[in-house]
Design a protein that fits this description.
Length: 388
């Protein structure tokens, strides 16, 4: 549907940094989950669309933003409710984290207004209305927020405690994650609009994913229908084409790292393990066990084809409800099954779905189906909604 497609491109969030977009909408479109019951969502989705900033090509600042959304006093449109703030940031900040000094402090002095590539306006907590808590991450809380100045965009604000990043030795990785994400513009990749920091914390202003974690929907349902799975995989493949075109390998594709936008569209949300590696082949072992490809299990070099493998695992998990090589009893067995590509399908899986999964889960990375062919695979095309 055209309206849904345009919503995908007009993310409900704030365009504050200089932006560029991939251009036309991807070939994939939007999955509309049938199970999610949020009575107020359609209205909110419409409103959020109005608040959305287009993914346009230009160096922007606030003066270039799209027309403001309806204000609270607007009689025709209710303002979006960002929920009640629980004071959690202040409470937490009293008890948690230490001031970081030295090289680490320099590494973590992250402020998008100082970015040489995409300078944005200077942000601080004072410029945001705090809303409801969205969740807790390993390094801090995530809140729904709205910018105080028009056009009052809705965002997710993620906090990261610097001292905890240092303690976990992930300060460089975090910096890399932020650097990668701020340069990405794709409807199925969560936008990072800006970031700022104080003595103890880094704050990331991220596109708000209205339907939350995909993993929760999958856990609740046990598995997804073929149609719903195909639509997610379509969007995922499209995002991966974009990432690989920018020499970004994701390396940690799994349901837990995926969120859903307000219209149910898939959003890749975590770049913790991403590598920006033009022409590089890596040998670091990382990622989640069930999604590891044979070359990583065997400690060999790997390249972007690890994401093709993970896409196959994801397709399987969406439809079956568990990863194909999972062995709850023993990690060694999982490794062994991955190395042998010990792939078994339940009889419920359609031949087309089996065909796609089998073509992605190949031992030899070079034999894995190219992403452009995933996008025109019959199973994907069959379920792709018509965009008019
Ligand atoms: P994280 O620190 O990324 O693991 O986030 C912790 C939790 O906050 C997640 O599990 C989500 O439920 C929620 N969350 C994170 N980012 C967003 C977002 N952009 N939009 C909505 N909810 C989010």
């Amino acid at each position: 549907m055209a309206t849904v497609g345009s919503v995908t491109r007009q993310i409900a969030a704030l365009e504050i940094s200089g932006t560029s977009s991939k251009g036309p909408a991807p070939t994939s479109s939007v999955a509309r989950p049938t199970h999610a019951k949020h009575p107020s969502q359609p209205n909110i989705a419409k409103l959020l669309t109005k608040f959305a900033a287009p993914h346009h090509q230009s160096q922007t600042n606030l003066s270039n933003l799209p027309p403001p959304p309806p204000s609270r006093s607007d009689k025709t449109q209710p303002a979006i409710d960002i929920g009640r703030y629980d004071g959690g940031l202040e409470i937490e900040n009293e008890k948690r984290g230490d001031v970081v000094t030295g090289d680490a402090a320099a590494d973590l002095a992250l402020d998008s207004s100082l970015s040489r590539i995409y300078p944005t306006q200077e942000w601080s907590l004072h410029l945001l209305d705090m809303g409801r808590p969205l969740g807790k991450g390993k390094f801090g809380r995530v809140y729904m927020v709205r910018t105080k100045t028009a056009p009052n965009y809705i965002l997710a604000l993620k906090t990261l405690y610097k001292s905890e990043l240092v303690k976990n030795k992930v300060e460089k990785q975090t910096r890399r994650e932020i650097e990668i994400q701020q340069n990405l513009r794709h409807p199925n990749i969560l936008r990072l609009y800006g970031f700022f920091h104080d003595e103890k914390r880094i704050f990331l202003m991220i596109e708000y994913a209205g339907k939350g974690e995909l993993y929760k929907h999958l856990s609740k349902l046990g598995s997804f229908s073929e149609k719903r799975s195909a639509r997610y995989i379509d969007q995922m493949a499209d995002a991966l084409v974009y990432l690989h075109g920018k020499h970004v390998i994701h390396r940690d594709i799994k349901p837990e790292n995926l969120l859903l936008g307000i219209n149910g569209e898939l959003k890749i949300g975590d770049f913790g393990w991403s590598v920006h590696a033009p022409g590089l082949r890596r040998m670091t072992l990382c990622g989640t066990l069930d999604y590891l490809p044979p070359e990583m299990v065997e400690g060999k070099e790997h390249n972007e084809k690890v994401d093709h493998w993970a896409l196959g695992v994801l397709t399987y998990e969406f439809m079956i409800g568990s990863a194909p090589f999972e062995d709850r009893g023993s990690a060694n067995n999982t490794y062994r099954r991955i190395a042998k590509v010990d792939l078994k399908f339940p009889s419920t899986i359609s031949p087309d779905a089996k065909d796609l999964i089998s073509k992605l889960l190949r031992y030899d990375p070079q034999e894995r189906l190219p992403l452009t062919e995933v996008l025109c695979h019959p199973w994907i095309v069959k379920y792709r909604p018509n965009v008019t």
